[in-house]
Design goal:
This protein is an alpha/beta fold. Helices cover 41% and strands 17% of the residues. Helix 1 packs parallel to helix 2, helix 5 crosses helix 7 and helix 7 packs across helix 9. The two termini are 16 Å apart. The structure holds 2-phosphoglycolic acid.
């Protein structure tokens, strides 16, 4: 049985002092040992959030990372820095990074390999635009994102990875995909992983749904056989996140 993983994606919100306040508010609300709870936060918040989360079930993740260990890459954050700060997860290839910061399947792949090299669990995002959905090429597009993203990743590594299926048209729009739409794509992503690797890997990998998840939609979504939790943006900044983590 796969353990659910419910992650907040704070995006570019919360100053360090606001971040600590939010962690202190949410700490008692997200206490659910049946679920892996991850707060993915801006780079400058990582250390204060990790400190504030100590002694709780909250694990901390970064929202991005570079694919080199160190060097002349002004403004980037290296995996070594994340490991040293006790960071266990990293979001890779979020659609906002792909759209505004020129992230490609190839750079996501390099970052995936780097994350595994350093024992950081990647949450690799994929998902189609509204236009692609209407053109009927949703799975063609996502299969390419997954296949290139996982190039060179071993089955043992893939088993520990998290994939977040986030239809772009559902992010920050208040338009959640229907439970059926979300389940269908997550099922097809699992089939794609089975095709690349094998049934055991497909069975182990965790696939989240993301895109306007809230306390009302979470229970149905997370009850689906191929949805192993969620990547939550807006609602992760509010006490509602506690309800999402305790969706049952
Ligand atoms: P949202 O964001 O929940 O605000 O739609 C989800 C995400 O982008 O990860």
């Amino acid at each position: 049985m796969r353990k659910k993983v419910i992650a907040g994606n704070w995006k570019m919100n919360m100053t360090p002092s606001e971040a600590v306040e939010l962690v202190n508010t949410l700490k008692p609300l997200v206490n659910n040992p049946e679920v892996d709870v991850v707060f993915c936060v801006p780079a400058i918040d990582l250390i204060p959030v990790a400190e504030a989360a100590k002694g709780s079930n909250i694990q901390v993740g970064a929202e991005n990372m570079y694919f080199e260990d160190k060097g002349a890459y002004t403004g980037e954050i290296s995996p070594l820095m994340l490991v040293d700060a006790g960071i266990k997860y990293v979001v890779l290839g979020h659609s906002e990074r792909r759209e505004y910061f020129a992230e490609t399947n190839e750079t996501v792949n390099k970052k995936m390999l780097k994350a595994f090299e350093h024992g950081i669990t990647p949450i690799m995002c994929c998902g189609e635009s509204l236009e692609q959905r209407e053109q009927g090429v949703t799975m063609d597009f996502i299969r390419q994102q997954v296949k290139v993203g996982f190039q060179g990743v071993t089955a043992e590594q893939a088993k520990t990875a998290v994939i977040a299926y986030e239809p772009i048209w559902a992010i920050g729009t208040g338009k959640t995909a229907t439970t059926q739409q979300a389940q269908e794509v997550c099922r097809d992503i699992r089939a794609c992983i089975e095709e690349i690797y094998d049934a055991a890997t497909a069975d182990a990998i965790r696939i989240q749904y993301g895109g306007s998840v809230n306390a009302d939609t979470a229970p149905d979504l997370f009850a689906q056989p191929d949805i192993d939790g969620g990547l939550v943006g807006g609602a992760s900044l509010k006490p509602d996140f506690g309800k999402i983590v305790n969706y049952k």
